From TrEMBL:
It comes from Hymenobacter canadensis. The keyword Transcription regulation does not apply. This is histidine kinase. It catalyses: ATP + protein L-histidine = ADP + protein N-phospho-L-histidine. Keywords: ATP-binding, Kinase, Membrane, Nucleotide-binding, Nucleotidyltransferase, Phosphoprotein, Transferase, Transmembrane, Transmembrane helix, Two-component regulatory system.
Amino acid sequence: MKLLNLNSLQGRLSVLLGALLLAVSGVYVLLLAQSTDQYLAEELQRNNRSLAASVAQVLQIDSATNEIPQATLQRTFGAAMAINPSIKLYLVGLDGQILTSSAAPNEVKSARVAMPPVRAFLAGRQPLPIFGTDPRHPAVARPFSVVPLVTRTGRLHCYLYITLGGGPAPDAATSWRQSYIVGGLLRMLALAGAATLVLGVLLISLLTKNLHRLSAAVRRLHAGDYAARVEGIQPGDELAELAEAFNGMAARTEESVAALRRNDELRRELVANISHDLRTPLASIEGYTETILLRQHLLTEPERQSYLHTILKNTQSLKRLVSELFELSKLEARQTVPRPEPFSVTELVQDVLLKLEPEARARTIALEAHWPTAVPFACADIGLIERVLQNLLDNALRYTPAGGRVLVTVAAPDAQQRLTLLVTDTGRGIAPQDLPHVFDRFYRSDQVRDKTQDGLGLGLAIARRIVHLHGSELTVHSREGEGTCFAFSLPVYGG
């Protein structure tokens, strides 16, 4: 059996429970002792309530002297004490002064008896026990029995006052009885306390077991096991809420770590792609430049012009690659801040279409636009939105086969006063497994990023970042063999 670690939460709670049980038991024993004394005194006084009246029946006050003969007193006192040695008898005056005592004179330490308890006893309205003065032990209040003694004419003469308890034989019996009762109750208390302690330790163990599970999961997460979860905790308490919060945090941590790993893999892939895409034009530039330098006297003018055009084309390709990387890095770092201004969306679309018309004609692709009769101005950064349209149209032209169609649509303002722009093509579409990654910065597949095409395919990532800066979302819908549609919205000027 595993020993209890006092430094653990379970150990500290168990010790605290034990100390609390001891404190409660101590208070209980104290109250039990007081209650037992009170009960015994009540029973003693109730059973002997009429004792003084019984003794007073044999005491006769002399009519001539109004006194009780001393011989009668001694005989009566002696007979009463012979029957019950624990009592002491006193004749008490109306003012509480002790007139006669059955005790030896040297035993009587107080010459007076307090009268308020006597009057309360005779009135019979106060619950028992009523404690009065013990002349032999003035510091100890004792239960008593008292009766008034009256003359033959009915005048109150004095009181017969009897203290109960204090004798050797009855005290031993009372102590035995009290010891028996208290002993039984203490045994019951010990059994109940032990059972409570065992049950409490078991309950504490069950409660702290959930804490052990939680701490074990935290240690696993700290050690790098991001799949660590807290299991087996029933819902309904604070620990369950804590476990649920930890599981949510662990899940988000696992997702973040997975995303970081995926980004790291994509970055490595990007480096490889950049190396490939930069190496090809650089090798071409180097080769053609060396050819021109080594064979400059042997080359004809048309050959030299062809080589120079090839060098220029590769240089422009390099410039475009570097420009895209630089632009994307600025957008990622939020160094590009839009400068909104009102402009005509239809005019911007026309300008972009005119720029791309020669390329579309060369590819035998129909480049068209459609919008309502009256289109309000939009409020956005016209330069950035032009870049979005150009990137989307470049992408559409690149993946639309000859004889296809690319359409730019400007929809009427919606209820939120936003203009929606759609770029639709009749290309080959995007595979379902690639569609969720089409805007990823470093994602590249044979369908989404055709490696036979120029560039790194960062145009869509750049377009999406620009649209985000304008408070919108660039969405895509595509079906393989039918085409693709990109859409985003812009706020209406003054809307």
